[in-house]
Amino acid sequence: MDEMHHAEWLIERIIFLEGLLTVTKLHTIKIGKTVSEMINNDSSDELDAVRSYNEAIKLAREVKDQGTVDLLSKILKMEEGHVDWAEIQCVQIKQIGMENYLANQTEGAVQ
Ligand SMILES: [Fe+2]
Questions:
Q1: Does residue 20 lie within any of the structural domains?
Q2: Would 23 be classed as within a structural domain?
Q3: How many Å lie between the centroid of ligand 1 and the Cα of residue 55?
Q4: pLDDT single digits (tens) 8-58
Q5: Does a structural domain hold residue 29?
Q6: Residues bordering ligand 1, an ion, CB closer than 5 Å
């Protein structure tokens, strides 16, 4: 859900800068067949996003575009939170095992 907001904010920024949008080129989404694969793929994608935002922030600083630096920094912080979330899930799975992890994920969902 956060990434949808990021896309909206980035599109608004590009339009403000009178740039051209390319929204038809999408990255391949790696989902995974198991929960571990899903979390590992998510972690990898989040780390790629962090790297990309850091590179984009560096470029925006070079061209003295503080508005873009501020926007990308806000998004970067959220992406770093996503990396943390994935790392926490991996640690929990290692500590309590997959069965207990999955049981914890469904707590509150069953009525
Ligand atoms: Fe993310």
A1: no
A2: no
A3: 16
A4: 999 999 999 999 988 888 788 889 999 999 999 999 999 999 999 999 999
A5: no
A6: 46, 79, 82
